[in-house]
């Protein structure tokens, strides 16, 4: 049991000096005027780091709109002498801090300027900002700094390891060809299958939080980022599936479509963002029921592939379930963490 506040356990600098690098003469915090430049940087990096998917502009723009993020203090941007954005790095404190505090490190260096120490300088600053976040919390809860890295981005993992993070978990991307038959399942007795509807947003949030309470690394989602996701431009209610007992959401499969990914993946596809079953209704076949309905809806909408990511050590055995439903593993990514 932890009985000492995070603020007393985490050493953090009182002030953050700008990173120093001879090829990056200007560093500063981010403003909303930087959204397009940051998006262009992440797009260039993504073509090398994860060529099968893109980071939407709207996802970056959310960082400048969500109330728990202060881009001017949480993000550092590095510019070359010609004003080109060479690097961006952020430390985002998760808005839910009831049971744990978690800071996610994110960032990119333009591929043309890598292996010069720019990423090392940016990530060192970002890690110190993460420590500041944790040290601001005066309650006795666990603290964590985490960074996701594609398996192919070994340089990023090496930089994270040098500042004290270590690989704790692996995730696998899985893809299903929707040309293969989809075994559709009827709703179990006493339940009904319905597409997602905006008026159920908070009921679905409650089901999501219950379903993920025992998932590794998961903290409860809160209303503002949840609304940004479900009310955003990519969620497809017609492809997303809920299983109801009366008016209670007991299982969910939420799917989105980002057409910018189609060329990268080589086919029109849907990404399955969330699959969950509330904890007192597990082991009843609810997960394959909602997934199958979403796969059939995606096929009927003319999409050719479905994509998802899964924790390789999920306590629910999700990896095996997805294989039985026709998904095949492709890429892997790791989560590097440090706990306090």
Automatic annotation (TrEMBL):
It comes from the Bacteria. SUPFAM superfamilies: Acyl-CoA N-acyltransferases (Nat). Gene3D superfamilies: 3.40.630.30. InterPro entries: Acyl_CoA_acyltransferase, GNAT_dom, YpeA/RimI_acetyltransf. The keyword Kinase does not apply. The keyword Transferase applies. Keywords: Acyltransferase, Transferase. Residues 25-188, 191-340 form the N-acetyltransferase domain. This is GNAT family N-acetyltransferase. It comes from Microbacterium wangchenii.
